[in-house]
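Board notes (copied after class):
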Amino acid sequence: MRQVLLVRYGEVHLKGQNRPYFLRRLTENVRRAVAPLGAEAWLSDSRIYVSGMADMDEAVRRVTRVFGLHSVSPAWELDKDYDQIAAKCVELTRPLSGTFKVAARRSDKRFPMNSQQLNAELGGVILDSNPNLRVDVHKPEHLVSLEIRDHAYVYIGEIMAAGGLPLGTGGRALLLLSGGIDSPVAGYQMMRRGVTVNAVHFFSFPYTSERAKEKVLELAKIVGEYGAGMKVYVVPFTDIQLQIHEKCPDEMGTLIMRRYMMRIACEIARRDNAAALITGESLGQVASQTIEALACTDAVADMPVFRPLISLDKQEITDIAVRIGTYETSSLPYEDCCTVFTPRHPLTRPRVGVVAEAEKALDAEALVRAAVEGTEEVLM
């Protein structure tokens, strides 16, 4: 008898002939998550199991952050012996009161009792041992679960996991990471679809402080905990912003700045073997996020630009930020480069040709090259 984590996967079961590949990657991601705890993980009979952890709560926390998983249950692994199973059910339900239901699943058809018989027999044993419980098969407060597989597994309840697809199955992309609420959530959302994500941050010292940079690195650390860490490319952006401010029309300043971010991010993405960019833009949230403005910025990108938050409102984005643990850090009062030299009356319906013409006052090739060459790499 030992305590294990019984781990269920979700969307992976839809993958047909590709399922073995996704399951191998998913199992490896679980194994990597629990390795620092001295635990081991393996796949068997439609479940992933984890054992050998000294800290069950930390194991649950780590495993529920693995993308591709549906839920996790701390369970007791027993011999396929009815008396041992019944005794463990009584032990686990002894502190409980209210309503309960037994849900047995007999995958091993050699076990002498079927699922319905187990439900009835174990329910009766639990009732006899605990007068504070009563049966409710429709909406029970406590669900006592039993799975008969290679062993018997008894547990109460399940803890929801991150869902999505296994990290590493969806390619690589580069996240434009600011210090705000939106971009860390965008990175998380793409990681949830199996995409391996690194980040690029545009740093405008001395107009933005070292604390602003530290804030962004902390956000990368938090989001990276859902994967295998995150590399951040910190780009010196002050000279570009100063030249835009001095040589380009004020009302186009933010748009031209965003276009330079795209150019630089595309170059860094290629060096990072990434095939796409990710931004935290939400349609209409600010002047640079109208359809026309997004078309202007995308015109200089030579790879796909994913915007997973495009249809979400600010409250929906904030709710996700709170849930994944980035909101508090994002709310620290340190400005990023997007707030430097903000136009008083920015264009909201720009035309690509007009903005491109205004950019001719700048040496795009030289500015991009200097920014990329001065980029700092930080591994979080």
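Comment from the instructor: Residues 136 and 179 are 49 Å apart (CA to CA). The radius of gyration is 26 Å.
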